[in-house]
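Readers of this paper often ask what the protein records in our data store actually look like. Nothing more is needed to write down the fold, since each code stands for a local backbone conformation. Below, we set out a record of this kind in full and without editing:
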Amino acid sequence: MELWKISQKVSELSDVIPYYFFSLVSSCLSLSTVMVVFSLDTWGMIGIIVNSFYVVIPYLLFAVPVQVLFNKHPGKFSLNYFFLYIFFSLPAVFIYSSVLNSDFSMDILTTKNFYAISLLAALFFWFWDSVFLQKKSSAS
């Protein structure tokens, strides 16, 4: 590959990285806020910040690679993308919950919280992806 093509790819990527960051941070804060509010935790803002640090890891490992793939063919508020985010959030939340609870049993799959958190994680990431990245990608 010629040097100018590599330079062009790096330039295009550097223009989009802040939007990935905004999407990731917004998703983490949104999910953490809902988790703190519905757990009736008294930690408040500190609980949201601490939960965000825990939530960022599954988002980085599962959602961001899918997001990068989706942005090759932008689709703002695409239901197909939403369903795929749900598909990937199920194993992400399972691993996240199993690691935090040190319990790798399948019992977690029988709880309503597992499915609620999976759905909310996908919903928030899909929403913020559509707001920040899909718009940016479709404009380019």
